[in-house]
Amino acid sequence: MASIVNRVTPSLNAHLPAFRSGVAARLAGVPAQTLRIWEHRYGVISPNVSAGGQRLYSAPDVDRLVLIKALVDAGHAIGSIARLPTSVLQAMRGSMGMIARRDGVTAPSSEARVALVGPLVSVLEFSAPALHVIQRFADVNAAGQANALDALALAVVEVATLSDQSLTQMTQLKETLAARQMMVLYRFAPGPVIRRLRQAGIEVMRAPSDAQQIESVCLTALQMPVIESKSTPTTLPAPPRFDEQALARLATTSNSLYCECPRQLAELLVNVNSFERYSLECQNRGPEDAQLHRDLHRAAGEAREILETALSHLMRVEGLSSGT
């Protein structure tokens, strides 16, 4: 039976944390293919769908998937529990004499000790009382020189890129800090490296650029309640589709066309991308100023998505390639 999907109503759902299917599957501890089967065949979840057709899963959606996985692992048939209310699933899990968590370990207490590693992540201030930041490191090298941290529930590590050496590096760092869990936030990485890290039990995802989304991801990974903010949306635009080199090639190649729209759009995107980065790095004079820059950053990302969609359509019509 096909699953039911809900179109996102921005005015009602903009404040809810949202995860794409791949991230939701990893947080729930199930393969993406399993999630698709559970959703389409059994209707275990009814995700929202963005205007662009992207399925978006909320933190409660992921928590429901975690419940179902725990029960399936305990021997329950997916067909018999797929459509049960979440409250019933919680009662069933409670009767198992355990509190299931995404990594199979007993759930932590109401407060989790967290270490932040990386130039941007290390300066974040979480609003959730459940996340207690006990140590901040400017980069991986600094964290690698530290001593083990007592009762560290989660190490959040920000890196620009991942390479073949990353598995050894991150495994050693996790051991050095004595972290129960590790989450690596990357910007660029080859697929095989990402898969090897996940196989080693290290959570990996593309780095969000918003503090509230990082906070939501941490809470969800630790199986802790996500505090929803009604004033600031946490759903972020997708990462850029075109890097600066691709945009530069498009701007140069399209000079030979009668229509200059590809070049104009490419140049607009370069400027919007630059402002998007600048708004994140701009110095803040206080909490209100920081919130203003987060709003500007999000607005720039939304504008970028619109321009990228227009450029992609124009490229198809003109027969252009980003690698041209």
In DSSP terms (H or I, runs of 4 or more residues), the helix count works out at 13
Radius of gyration: 21 Å
What's the CATH H-level homologous superfamily of the largest domain? Response regulator
CATH classification class of the largest domain: Alpha Beta
Structural class: alpha/beta
What is the typical, i.e. mean, pLDDT?
A: 77
Distance between the termini: 43 Å
- The number of strands is 8
Annotated CATH topology of the largest domain:
Rossmann fold
- Weakly predicted, low-confidence segments: 1-5, 7-16, 97-109, 227-234
Q: What is the helical fraction, as a range of percent? A: 40-55%
CATH architecture group name of the largest domain: 3-Layer(aba) Sandwich
For the largest sheet, list the strands in their spatial order: 5-4-6-7-8
The largest β sheet comes out as: 5 strands, parallel
From the spread of the alpha carbons, the general shape counts as globular
Total domains, how many? 3
Amount of beta strand: 5-15%
SSE ordering: EHHHEEHHHEEHEHEHEHHHH
Oligomer category: single chain
